[in-house]
Design goal:
Elements: H1 2-15, E1 23-31, H2 39-53, E2 60-66, E3 69-76, H3 81-89, E4 94-98, H4 102-119, E5 133-136, E6 143-148, H5 152-159, H6 162-165, E7 176-180, E8 187-193, E9 203-204, E10 208-215, E11 221-227, H7 229-245, E12 249-253, E13 256-259, E14 272-276, H8 281-292, E15 300-307
Length: 308
Amino acid sequence: MKKIYYLIFVLLILACNPSREKKEFVFFYEFENEDSISSGEVSETIFVLNKRLNQFSNQHEITEFERNKLKVKITDYELDTLRLNKIILNKGKLEFWELYHVEEIFHEILKIGSFYEDKAKDSLKNKPFLDMFTALGHQYGPIIAFCKAEDTVAINKMLNDKDTRFQMKPEYINTKFLWGIADENNNLPLYAAKSNRNNIPPLTGESILKAKQVTDVVDRPAVLIEMNKEGAITWERLTENAFKNASYIAVTLNDLVYSAPGVTVGPIQGGLTQIAGDFTLSQAQDLAIILSSQKSIPQLRPIQDVTQ
């Protein structure tokens, strides 16, 4: 027993070693589209990043050191720079979209696919439209089809072409096509969301009051979010529609679908919901930090880092 107490005492001494000095870590970032970034957006980005880093570091400072360039200084004993970059470089653009069923939209996709093949055969390299899909979605599910990553550019070009869009019925012209996370065979799922002329989702991350890492019903890391009053009302309406129509809601982060749940128990009241996916524990923790800041930011990229 004395040995155990002695070991604990030694560990405490080492943990509180006064001779251990903190280091100063300095990182520099720039906006990807710096020429289009306003001073207001720079200030807003600094504000959002400070909210994120408040949950990551006790001692940090973010400043604009040149026009549209940021300096991040963190003082600590050690620093996980990879994790820091994930928190800073994530735009944090959370959106919720109502999805079409496959049978609602697939005929329209076939029409624009046929039209585009005739219009731009060279850009498709004579590969038939349907051959770009590795599999089709289930009839009443939210996934339209699957394809390999190398074919997404050609498919995006086709689906977002202005001329091909007008081959669709008027009620489908503003459809927003979204990609999901690749499966183990590197097949990406394609979704079709109900959008509008201004491409504005019915619900965004700005409605979030709190976000925290939890585990879902099968003990996987997930993120629980709590919405404000306005967001809760919108979420109740969205889930009511999904329940009545047996449809689905896409949860997207930075335009990538992380989950597309259906609603089987009626409208969800109170503004609480979970974001689940194939998250690791650290990924879910970092996502909670990012979403707690409530606002998205323009895309940043690292310039260099300095440790002193």
